[in-house]
Amino acid sequence: MPRPILATVHTAALAHNLARARAAAPDARIWAVVKANAYGHGIERVFDPLRSADGFALLDFAEAQRLRALDWRGPILLLEGCFEARDLELCSRLGLWHTIHCNEQIDMLAAHKTQLPHRVFLKMNSGMNRLGFTPERYRAAWTRLNALPQVDEISLMTHFSDADGPKGIAAALKAFDAVTHDLPGERTLSNSAASLRHGSVLAGRSDWIRPGILVYGSAPDFPEHSAVHWDLQPTMTLSSRIIGLQELKAGDTVGYGSSFTADGPMRIGIVACGYGDGYPRHCSTGTPMLVGGVRTRMVGRVSMDMLTVDLTPVPTAGIGTEVTLWGKASSGALMPIDEVAQAGGTVGYELMCAVAQRVPFQVE
Ligand SMILES: *Cc1c(COP(=O)(O)O)cnc(C)c1O
User: Fold this and answer.
1) 212 CA to middle of ligand 1, Å?
2) Residues annotated catalytic, as ranges
3) Residue segments in the chain with a per-residue pLDDT below the cut of 70
4) pLDDT in the model for residue 22
5) What is the pLDDT of residue 124?
6) Residue 228 counted as domain residue
7) pLDDT at 1
8) Do residue 115 and residue 158 come from a single domain?
9) pLDDT confidence of residue 246
C-alpha cells in the first residue's frame, strides 16, 4: 500500500467559489488567477471547473503554455509581464496579454518585431511599492506605449496593498483615479480581498477582477472573516491516516526536542504527514486537525515524515483512522486551512502552494 498521504482537489468547490467571485462583481469579467500552479492545486486539475472564467492570470510562461496545451483559446494575462526580450516572441506566438510595469519592458516592446500588436496592461504602483509606475510617472508611460505600433489596446491596472486590512483601498483608489480618470481602456483593480470587502466602492470601476485565493476557498482576510463567512468552500483537502499509536503516562514527552510533555495518561496517534509533504514545521502543539472527522490538536513538533496528534477526543481512533490536516473530512466536517496556517504563523496561500511533489493528488 502506498503511504497514506493524499491531496484531493474538489472541482465542485472550485466552480462554487468562482460563482462567488462573479456574485461579488457581477458587472466585471473574471481573471481566474492560476499562478504558482493554481496555488498548488495543479493547473490541469483546476482547468475544467474554472473554464467558465473569462481569462486566466499567471506569471510563468511555462504555465501559460500548459493552458494553451489544454486548448484554452481565451485571454491569458501575464501578471509580471516579460522578463527578457525573447519572452515577447512567446507573447506573440501564444497570444498572451502582458503587464508593463517598468520602462525597460517598454524598451523591449519598442524593439520587438511582431505582426500582431499586443494587448498590454499598464500597471500603477498605488502604494505597494513592488511593481508598477508611480502615479507621477504613469501617464508618461501610457503616452510612450500609446505611440508604439507594437501596442494594440492599453488597459489600466493596479494592485492594492491593503485590501484585506484596516488601511483599506481609499488612498490607492484616489491615486489611481486622479491619474487615470480621462484615459481610455479597461481597468483591472481587485484581487480577492478587494472583490469581497470593497465590492460596492469598486462596482462599475473594474472591467476585470483578479481573484485568486477566494477561488481556492481560503478567506483573504482571515481571521477577521472566515471562508464560511464569505461562503467559500475548500478546494483542497490534505488527508492522511494514523500509522502508529502510543500510550503516554504523566511526564512522557513527544517527538524531537521533547517539546510536549503529557500531564496525565493519554493516547496519541502518529500521522503519516510531515514537513517533507509540505506541512508547515512552524505548526506545533495546539495546531488543529480532524481525526475521524473529530477536531483535536497536534502535540509536539512536526518531523519530516510524521506528526503526532492527541487522541483524547477520539477514543475510537486506531491505526488507519482518517486524519484531515486541512479541507474536508469524509464525514463532511471541515478543517479550515486558514486555521492551520494561523497556527503556523502563515497564510492559507503558503500552505496550498507548498504541498510537496511526493504527495499524490486526486481530483474529486
Ligand atoms: C496573485 C495576484 C492576484 C490574486 O490575489 P489573491 O489575493 O489571491 O486574490 C491578483 N493580482 C495580482 C497582480 C496578483 O499578483
Assistant:
1) 6
2) 35, 256
3) none
4) 97
5) 98
6) no
7) 73
8) yes
9) 98
Domain extent for 291: 236-363
* Residues 62 and 162 grouped into a single domain: yes
Work out how many domains the chain is built from and give that number.
2
Distance 319 CA to ligand 1 centre (A): 41
Interval between CA 57 and ligand 1 midpoint (Å):
9
Ligand 1 atom index nearest CA of 216:
8
pLDDT for the residue 115:
82
Q: Does residue 53 sit in the same domain as residue 161?
A: yes
Q: Could you tell me if residue 1 is inside a domain?
A: no
At residue 69, the pLDDT reads 98
Q: Does some domain include residue 72?
A: yes
- Ligand 1 site residues (CB inside 6 A) read 33, 35, 79, 159, 191-193, 210-213, 220
pLDDT score, position 114: 82
H/E element holding 230? none
- At a CB cut-off of 8 Å and minimum separation 6, what does 315 contact? 267
- The CATH number for 348's domain is 2.40.37.10
- 157 CA closest ligand 1 atom index: 13
**Which domain-ending residue is among 216, 251, 282?**
216
Residue 214 CA, closest ligand 1 atom number: 9
Q: Do 206 and 271 sit in the same domain of this protein?
A: no
- The pLDDT of residue 289 is 98
What is the per-residue pLDDT for 2?
84
Beta strands in the chain (DSSP E): 6-9, 29-33, 55-58, 76-78, 97-100, 118-124, 151-158, 187-188, 208-209, 236-248, 253-254, 260-261, 266-271, 288-291, 294-297, 307-310, 322-328, 334-335, 361-363
